[in-house]
């Protein structure tokens, strides 16, 4: 019974009911499956957090782009007013050209961990479940 006493002492000192497969093979298998699921859920949480960061980055870029597009609409309406001469219209055209260039720059340089959410033409897949697939 020294062996039982030693096993009990090991269980008490480790805090685990199962320390090796000989203690309870089925219980160990279940425990390892649960540990695997927990690790999968932890990674899913990290993946979801990364996805939120990506979306927030894209949202910031799109918000800025939206402001520029609104400004371009205002400029187009302003330019259509018959009270502006060719010099004023040329200045408006230059501002529109600069806004277009800035929109292109934002699109091509917006980046989150190497992913370009605005310029990319491919789908972005995020694994947020405990298992892949």
TrEMBL record:
This is Flagellin. It holds the Pfam family Flagellin_N. Gene3D superfamilies: f41 fragment of flagellin, N-terminal domain (1.20.1330.10). Keywords: Cell projection, Cilium, Flagellum. PANTHER family: FLAGELLIN. It comes from the Bacteria. The keyword 4Fe-4S does not apply.
């Amino acid at each position: 019974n020294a062996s039982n006493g030693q096993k009990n002492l090991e269980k008490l000192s480790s805090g685990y009911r199962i320390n090796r497969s000989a203690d309870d093979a089925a219980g160990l298998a279940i425990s390892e499956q649960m540990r695997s699921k927990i690790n999968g859920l932890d990674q899913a949480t990290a993946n979801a957090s990364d996805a939120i960061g990506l979306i927030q980055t894209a949202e910031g870029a799109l918000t800025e782009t939206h402001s520029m597009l609104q400004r371009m609409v205002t400029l187009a309406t302003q330019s259509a007013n018959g009270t502006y001469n060719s010099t004023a219209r040329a200045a408006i055209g230059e501002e529109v050209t600069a806004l277009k260039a800035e929109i292109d720059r934002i699109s091509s340089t917006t980046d989150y961990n190497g992913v370009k959410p605005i310029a990319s033409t491919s789908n972005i897949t995020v694994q947020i479940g405990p298992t892949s697939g």
